[in-house]
Amino acid sequence: MVLEISSAALDAIVADANASPAREVCGLLLGTRVRIEAVLPCRNVAENPADSFEIDPQALIAAHRAARDGGPGIVGCYHSHPNGSATPSARDAAAAENGAIWIIAAGGEIGVWRAVSAAFEPVAYERRR
Ligand SMILES: [Zn+2]
Predict the structure, then answer these.
(1) Rounded distance between C-alpha atoms, residue 101 and residue 75, angstroms
(2) pLDDT for residue 108
(3) CATH class given for the domain over 3-128
(4) Distance between Cα 57 and ligand 1 center (Å)
């Protein structure tokens, strides 16, 4: 199965990452199992945002509440690696929830991954309008 990702979502992730070259940016991926429609940029509240991220828990709670109330589903998260590659770090693997989609932006590259048993497998995706 090829995951569809809207151009708007991909462009928003790259723009968010490019606007913050010294610290990791992060946010939520909204949509369904087969298509990521939009992103919700969130505050990175990690103690050391230069090389780690933690999505603002308030934003996370609000997004889950909205999803329960019929809003867009949360299918995963994105973040950036300002000085790294678009592959997940060991810390990322430890934090990943099984089945979640993770998008990592690094230096204009995009990596799309699915968390499986505290590890990641690459996800085939297609940019669609
Ligand atoms: Zn990371």
Answers:
(1) 6
(2) 85
(3) alpha beta
(4) 17
Q: How many CA atoms lie within 13 A of 8 on its CB side?
A: 11
Q: Which residues have their alpha-adjacent CB atom under 5 A from ion ligand 1?
A: 89, 92
The domain segmentation of the chain, as residue ranges, is: 3-128
Note the pLDDT of residue 84.
Answer: 87
pLDDT tens by residue, 41-72: 999 999 999 999 999 999 999 999 999 999 99
pTM of this prediction exceeds 0.70:
yes
In whole angstroms, how far apart are CA 65 and each of 68, 73, 90? Answer: 5, 10, 30
pLDDT tens digit sequence for 69-97 = 999 999 999 999 998 899 999 999 999 99
Mean pLDDT of 14-39: 97
Distance, CA 104 to ligand 1 centroid (Å)?
7
Give the distance (Å) from ligand 1 centre to CA of residue 129: 27
Instruction: Classify residue 46 by burial, with Cβ atoms within 10 Å: 0-12, 13-18, 19+.
Output: middle
